[in-house]
Amino acid sequence: xxxxxxxxxxGWVPHPQFLETAAADPxxxxxxxxxxxxxxxxxxxxxxxxxxYVMASRDELPKPVHVxxxxxxxxxxxxxxxxxxxxxxxxxxIACTEAGVLLLNQAGGNAExxxxxxxxxxxxxxxxxxxxxxxxKANTAFNRTQQMGRDLKGMTVGLVGFGNxxxxxxxxxxxxxxxxxxxxxxxxxxxxxxxxxxxxxxMAEIYALSDVVSLHCPLTPETRGMVGAEAFAAxxxxxxxxxxxxxxxxxxxxxxxxxxxxxxxxxxxxxxxxEPPPPDHPLLxxxxxxxxxxxxxxxxxxRANITHIAALxxxxxxxxxxxxxxxxxxxxxxxxERYRKATGFQLD
Length: 348
Hints:
The mean pLDDT is 96. Strand 7 (180-184), helix 8 (190-195) and strand 8 (199-200) form a beta-alpha-beta unit. This protein is an alpha/beta fold. It has a seven-stranded parallel β-sheet, with helices on both faces. The protein has helices spanning 16-23, 39-47, 69-72, 93-99, 111-126, 129-137, 164-177, 190-195, 203-209, 229-234, 252-261, 300-318, 332-343; strands spanning 5-10, 28-33, 51-54, 80-83, 102-104, 156-160, 180-184, 199-200, 212-215, 239-243, 264-269, 289-291. It is elongated. The chain folds into two domains: 5-105 and 300-343, Rossmann fold (3-Layer(aba) Sandwich), CATH 3.40.50; 111-291, 3-Layer(aba) Sandwich (Rossmann fold). Residues 119-296 form the D-isomer specific 2-hydroxyacid dehydrogenase NAD-binding domain. Keywords: NAD, Oxidoreductase. Belongs to the D-isomer specific 2-hydroxyacid dehydrogenase family. InterPro entries: D-isomer_2_OHA_DH_cat_dom, D-isomer_DH_CS, D-isomer_DH_NAD-bd, NAD(P)-bd_dom_sf.
């Protein structure tokens, strides 16, 4: 059974692989909506679509076409929304469930790129690359002892979140650097972590025991603002803090204060409250910070992979199959009935 699925996206796709994979499936019709179109025009075009391929970065996508209850009320034909990446900040899962819309992400598709980026930031901070660079620019880098770094080998690294990226980060740390890896994730069993030679602990132990703390969790109501002044104060003195997760999980002002006091020795920051952050943001100018603009997963391989699996997911729905990586499985009973009415086909 096959149903011609009309898939809309706004602006651009992350990699040409999406269009190439979709073009190979005659059941998919892809609709490009210009990002400079008016809100009414964007909504009108999306209203004719069965699926919405959604930018994962909340500050890149115009707010009126974030997947909210307000937008969904205007899209009666929409059966599914799929994020560009593992994150889905512009999409409200509860609103999708209430509207009977399936929400997907591309979890795991960019795990290698993000994990490598996180470890690279750990190394940069421990080797004092950001402040050495700053000292050279200021013509004060004469005493190399003042720039003495530390080796990652044998350190204890605490991972907050143990999904696809956290697991790959743990593998790199263990195999390449012999690190002891701790992880906190309420949704992953201790046995699963033990199988990966990772010890499941609570957040308090992550903070107390880790030489490096690295965030790998999604932005949710429970993680928003989770790492603030109290958390930084509870961490080991001279900890290195790295985040390739999502902005708003850590408190940027509290991190700056912890860097100023020396509680945090260095920070690698790939994600921000506002993206990109304003050029006068204090963290961008701190000598112990290495910063990037949400690019951990922006590699040729990662982008090709996430777009390929997204196109395959749309193809699954067009051909009467449930796709993987469903964020809101509780919607399935209602969604299957909506699918039957829209396509005439019954899903098991």
